[in-house]
């Protein structure tokens, strides 16, 4: 059984093979250190309800890396993770795929402090953590239509998430939402909003995380034209009054 200190890595490595991902020993060390910092800081602030090592490796780290089921992560890609929280999926993706240029956006400054600490501890470059709301940073002169890819594991309906996320994506880029449930009804309700925001639904990638009964769904939207200037609406409205619902 392969070990790193007191931590097993064999299960994580085996799960990653199911996604055709191979990490170096240094990358494995970085994931373990990330886990350690996560659990240390979690004692002082609420970052995650999941703290057991094997569960974090599967339900946070492996789940974040499941993006490979829907996107070619080996391209030189600029990525923004909206509502990144403790860095999932964006920071995990950066560790596994160092060539990605990653921006982590979150509205809670304490989380940004945590993320910056992890970035410094792991010696990562080409990644930045920004404190702010999506409604503000998606405006002209900020980060509007600057990214090849926007990802989000945030808990919100697809209409709301699309209004937060699509304005960040360049025409020709994609928005991918991580979901943990079947979303046929939600997709139908969101399709009008997505079109209004310059997107077109490509489809979804449904699967179970390796060696588990944990269902996952990556919902994929292509950015086919520029988002009208009036979107996103002012802070709070996308969640309070979702488009086309």
Mind summarizing the main beta sheet? 7 strands, mixed
The secondary-structure class comes to alpha/beta
CATH architecture: 3-Layer(aba) Sandwich
Biggest sheet strand order reads 5-4-3-6-7-9-8
Number of domains: 1
Q: Figure out the total of helices.
A: 9
Helix content: 25-40%
Tell me what you see in this structure.
This protein is an alpha/beta fold and 245 residues long. The chain has one domain (3-240): Rossmann fold, CATH 3.40.50. The protein contains 9 helices and 9 strands. The protein has helices at residues 10-18, 25-42, 53-65, 90-96, 109-122, 134-137, 158-165, 184-196, 237-240, and strands at residues 3-4, 7-8, 78-82, 101-106, 127-131, 147-152, 169-179, 199-208, 215-223. The strands form 2 sheets. The chain has a 7-stranded mixed β-sheet with strand order 5-4-3-6-7-9-8, with helices on both faces. A two-stranded antiparallel sheet has the order 1-2. Helix 7 (158-165) runs parallel beside helix 8 (184-196). The longest helix has 18 residues, at 25-42. The protein is globular and about 50 Å long. The termini are far apart.
């Amino acid at each position: 059984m392969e070990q790193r200190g007191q931590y097993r890595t064999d299960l994580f490595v085996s799960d990653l093979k199911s996604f055709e991902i191979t990490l170096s020993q240094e990358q494995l060390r970085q994931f373990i250190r990330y886990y350690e910092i996560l659990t240390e800081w979690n004692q002082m602030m609420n970052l995650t309800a999941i703290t057991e090592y094997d569960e974090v490796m599967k339900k946070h780290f492996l789940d974040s890396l499941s993006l490979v089921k829907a996107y070619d992560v080996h391209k030189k890609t600029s990525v923004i993770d909206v509502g990144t929280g403790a860095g999932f999926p964006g920071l995990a993706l950066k560790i596994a795929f160092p060539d990605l240029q990653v921006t982590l956006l979150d509205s809670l400054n304490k989380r940004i402090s945590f993320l910056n600490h992890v970035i410094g501890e792991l010696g990562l470059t080409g990644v930045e953590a920004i404190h702010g709301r999506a409604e503000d940073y998606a405006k002209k002169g900020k980060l509007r239509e600057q990214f090849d890819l926007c990802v989000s594991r945030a808990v919100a309906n697809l209409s709301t998430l699309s209004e937060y996320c699509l304005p960040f994506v360049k025409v020709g880029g994609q928005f991918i939402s991580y979901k943990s449930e079947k979303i046929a009804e939600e997709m139908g309700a969101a399709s009008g909003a997505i079109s209004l925001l310059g997107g077109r639904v490509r489809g979804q990638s449904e699967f179970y995380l390796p060696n588990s009964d944990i269902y996952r769904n990556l919902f994929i939207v292509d950015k086919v034209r520029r988002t009208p200037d009036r979107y996103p609406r002012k802070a709070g409205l996308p969640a309070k009054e979702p488009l086309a619902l």
